[in-house]
Amino acid sequence: MRFHVRLNHEGFYSEHQNLKRFKRGIPTQHTVSSIDKNIRKIRCCKTAGHFTQAPVFLSYLLGYSMHLKQNLLLLTTCALITGLPCHSADAQTPATESFSGLTFQSPAEKSIGKKIVLIAAEQEYRSEQSMPMLAKILSSRHGFDCTVLFAVNPQGQVDPTMPVYPEKGKESEFQTHNIPGLDRLKEADLVIFFARLLTLPLEQQKQIVSYIDSGKPIIGLRTANHGFRGRLPYKIDGKQIQFGEQVLGGTFRGHHGNWHRDSTRGDIVDAMKDHPILTGVANIWGPSDVYRTFPENGALPSNCTALVYGQPLIGREQGGESNPNKIPLPVIWTKPWKTSNGKSARVFHSTMGSGKDFENDGFRRCIVNACYWCTQLEDQIPPQSDVSYVDPYTPLSSGFNYEKLGVTPKMPTEYRTP
Predict the structure, then answer these.
(1) Tell me: the pLDDT tens digits for 318-330?
(2) From CA 130, how far away is CA 297, in angstroms rounded?
(3) CB-based contacts of 389: which residues, under 8 Å, 6+ apart?
């Protein structure tokens, strides 16, 4: 069937007048029908191949959406329904069903030809702020092409407030988590996981497992060692693989430091001070506490190499006194991961990583250097990696008291700039 959209002066005038009333705040019963009508017209234009006419109707949709508080959500919805690309001033990535993250392209003169995917999908440590900040540094300062993926709610918003456990008696109402854009893992040279207790659709779990078993490098930050509430569909030789315990080298067993009371001083292991990841790294500190990842009187697995130990400090100020009742435990280490087909992947894990931890340039430098090391570019690590912010970075504090902390659901594009 051939579709044709007739453009006439009367139709444009009527639409123009309705839009003017809407902008002035005058209620009109035609607003919703006008939006729907324009969407249908755009779809007709697209089907008929009349792409020169479609932007006219799209301009009216943009007119309505730019005067709604939910403009970003409406813009995204329009693009999804019509199947046409839709860009805002800050968005560099098309809004499609398979992607709702952020991309940060490296400048051509700096590009080193490596792609990093950063996954921000936890509820406590403000990864939704730290991962875009880190991606900007990696792309602008170091030539990595970066993509940030977020866990989003059914409205497409980045939503750290989503529960990780079903409410008793309301199990049927529990909403699984969703990370659109995981198809980007296929092209990634490195993935940085910052997840916590996720319940994901099976297809998304398989996409993650496919990457983990690819032999490509992995970075896990803070809660990544308990990133998934259930088991991933990942077995080797018939045995279930635990992402934290086996892939990363340890899982969360408790707060060794006092939760939200102690801070952590990172002490570099003297025998590892010349490791490429520690190039130019000094004075690591963060207000997050030390995790325990192995039983008391135990140790890291033998295939792990500790680079930094975390000494719990009394209070949450840098330079505070060591807690005399708390021994230092490993907080940063490397290890290999052997996949089902025998490939060996480089793995880096840090149990530090809160949004506030990333304000420490020693910690940021360690993570940036780890990206070079993971992608086997350690010979390109600068003596003093540039970890200066691209944009101002003022992360919210860690915790679950969302209203007090100011944590609210936001569209992904809102995390492109502060």
Answers:
(1) 989 999 999 999 9
(2) 34
(3) 133, 136, 137
